[in-house]
Amino acid sequence: MDEAEDDVLAYLAFPEDHRVKLHSTNGLERLNKEVKRRANVVGIFPNDASIRRLIGAILAEQNDEWLLQNRYLTLESLSDLSSPLAESAPPALPAAA
């Protein structure tokens, strides 16, 4: 556990409004539940391609809903996150004389 401490606590380096979304798998669990619910409605699939089409359609629908409803991580908070990274870039090499 001591060896993995840095990896386990890595999410603490992100802004506080990101942390809530990074430590949870609720979104993934909800998506899996929706796939299972719709697959149970169909019951028996004639082949693998039909399963892929159904799951692909569900994933595309969920993606569209996410794009329309709200952003998982806002662009403003992501730009705030990327600013310190740009500032911490190594200084440019001096020009050759």
Overall strand count: 0
Major beta sheet summary: none
Average pLDDT rating: 76
Instruction: Report the sheet-strand fraction.
Output: under 5%
Distance between the termini: 52 Å
Instruction: Summarize the amount of helix as a percent range.
Output: 55-70%
Low-confidence stretches: 84-93
Question: Number of helical segments?
Answer: 5
Sheet/helix structural class: mainly alpha
Globally, the shape reads elongated
Q: N-to-C SSE series? A: HHHHH
Question: Explain this structure to me?
Answer:
- With 97 residues, this protein is mainly α.
- 65% of the residues lie in helices and 0% in strands.
- The chain is elongated.
- The chain is built from 5 helices and no strands.
- The longest helix is centred in the middle third of the chain and has 22 residues, at 48-69.
- It has a domain at 44-72.
